[in-house]
Amino acid sequence: MLVLCDFIRLGSADAIYDHLSRELSFPDYFGRNLDALHDCLTDIGAPTRLILTGAGSPCGQRFLPVFKDAARQNRFLSVEVHEG
Fold first, then answer.
1. Is 50 exposed, middle or buried (0-12, 13-18, 19+ CB in 10 A)?
2. pTM of the entire structure?
3. Looking at residue 44, which CATH number applies to its domain?
4. Long-range Cβ contacts of 34-38 (<8 Å, 24+ apart)
5. Which domain holds residue 50?
6. 64 partner at 20 to 30 Å CA-CA among 5, 20, 29, 37?
7. How many folded domains does the chain comprise?
């Protein structure tokens, strides 16, 4: 699975949570916070590639450590980061 996430275009934490929840089929109980995001990302059980653009934005900088840590913990998750 390939999922694109543009932090600049999405622009807010709520929009990012909505987008990722939809694209990655997070469970209904997804808590819409960084800890819950990390939990859902580390639970992914099929090869998934996330391409993150606008990672240099304030929103991107806040979310990026969660994605990187989850990718280190989950062999099925890979993260590709683009600053611009």
1. buried
2. 0.91
3. 3.30.370.10
4. 34/62, 34/63, 34/66, 37/63, 37/66, 37/70, 38/66, 38/69, 38/70
5. 2-82
6. 29
7. 1
